[in-house]
Specification:
Blueprint: H1 4-26, H2 32-40, H3 48-67, H4 80-96, H5 101-110, H6 114-137
Helix pairs in contact: 2-3, 5-6
Pfam family, one: Sulf_transp
Protein name: YeeE/YedE family protein
Subcellular location: Cell inner membrane
Length: 141
Amino acid sequence: MATEWVMGLVGGVVIGIAVSLMLLWNGRVTGVSSIVYGVLVPIKGDIAWRWYFIIGLLIGGLSLKITAPELLAAELQTKAWIGSIAGVLVGFGAMLGGGCTSGHGVCGVSRVSPRSIVATIVFMAAGMAAVVLLRKTGLLI
């Protein structure tokens, strides 16, 4: 098995190629929260590609689960209710920030968008602060 940094490098290259192709072929930024939002609040003529994207994400994850389940084996380090609250907060943060980490952090930073750079710094700082806080309170190991 390759070392962790090689896997991270390959993953980063694949993500970079994928978001570049999305922008080139579809003229869209690959912001997952915006794509999902467009399915939940559809605009006529702008929904098919969103469903294809979401289905592709699910098929990709499922194929990895079937072919290499050890890569997805992870032990939860917190209680399920905390994870559920965190998910809701992430969704709220994506709405508040005008996008998610994929839209701002991957696509926006690579386009040198000042708004995305600030949003990514805020996302990262909030995530680090949350981990420190949860570890101090004993809610996260």
